[in-house]
Amino acid sequence: MAAALQVVAVLAGAPLVMGGMRQVRARLEGRAGGGIGQPYRDLRKLLRKQQITPQGTTVVFALAPAVAAGSTLLIAAIVPLIALGSPLDSAADLFGVVGLLFLGTVALTLAALDTGTAFGGMGSSREITIAALVEPTILLAVFALSIPAHSANLAAIVSAAMQNPGQVFSPGSVLAFVALVIVTLAETGRLPVDNPSTHLEVTMIHPAMVLEYAGPKLAVVEWASGMRLTVLLALLANLFLPWGVAATDPSALGVLLGLAAITVKVAVLASVLAAGEVFIAKLRLFRVPELLAGSFLLALLAVTASSFLATTTQ
Length: 314
Prior knowledge:
Helix content is 71%, strand content 0%. It contains 11 helices and no strands. Helix 1 (2-28) packs across helix 3 (59-78) and helix 1 runs parallel beside helix 10 (252-278). The termini are far apart.
């Protein structure tokens, strides 16, 4: 029940997260904004449009949106967002989740190359460059959290943090949190790494890869992008603020309370992220690897600090 509810919540709530972030930015910039329900209206409009496919593209271009959305929904099903003790908890391994994240990135990258356009090649090249720095950082940061839990399973990490709240404020956890915040911005194409609303060719990364999509397939791509941001924010919240997650074998009330808790945590994180973007300018493209290299160093320091603390406590 909890696993199914997680998928439905991410599927239905992702446009709401995107709309809320846009509305926060609009209010802070002195604009009225389109309202938090605007992404739903945009998706409805795109789903009603005629599907247009560029000439010369193959099945890679056609299947990439479904792969990106499906891999994100699979992550939403297996990671502990609402409750622990799901039959799918054993599949929520650190390496499996990172692999699924990379699968969605590679699918859209190959689709951009399949179009044979200059923008597609430019965007995919930049995206893979960023992914090559992001994925190892995620592995190291979560590995630092797995050392006190003695397991690379995400449910075990969340359970250990709930049983020992003090480790959330340890040096290793703080360093891992900062590293994961930076790579979450890069993985989801947010400022200062990328600007999801840009139309400038010089600064395009993710928008350049999806320029050839239109109609229902563009709706799936935009929906998948919102779901990825929602899942990563929820996972970030539960790894460092696990309170509210329903315990093993929860009741229906526990599942609903877990849903309410993760909703509040994602809303707060999304609002803080949107507010921060108002005061942050996009980095120059050649400065992005420096930022991501710094996050990798923070993740490496987090692993070192966690290992040292684990050794001293023993």
